[in-house]
Amino acid sequence: MKNIFLRHMQTAEPLEVIYMDGHSRITQRQVTVYECEGNYIKVYCHTRREKRIFRLDHILSAQPVKKYKAVHD
User: Fold this and answer.
1) Which residue segment(s) compose the domain that 26 sits in?
2) What pTM was estimated for this model as a whole?
3) Which one, of 48, 54, 50, lies nearest residue 36 by Cα?
4) 17, 44, 57, 69: most buried, per Cβ within 10 A?
């Protein structure tokens, strides 16, 4: 899974992650990765509007944020 974070760190495209914190609470976040080191990633969390550090082993899933096109009549 670390490869997806490294790839998105280079492109600065946001990811949607499902994360389990130290108290086993599960949250869904939209993040932009700016550093990946060891077992941690440093991200800007668009959901919380602040920088966060996540443990890789607590990330349950990660996928690119879906982009929606406007439909014109």
Assistant:
1) 2-64
2) 0.82
3) 54
4) 17
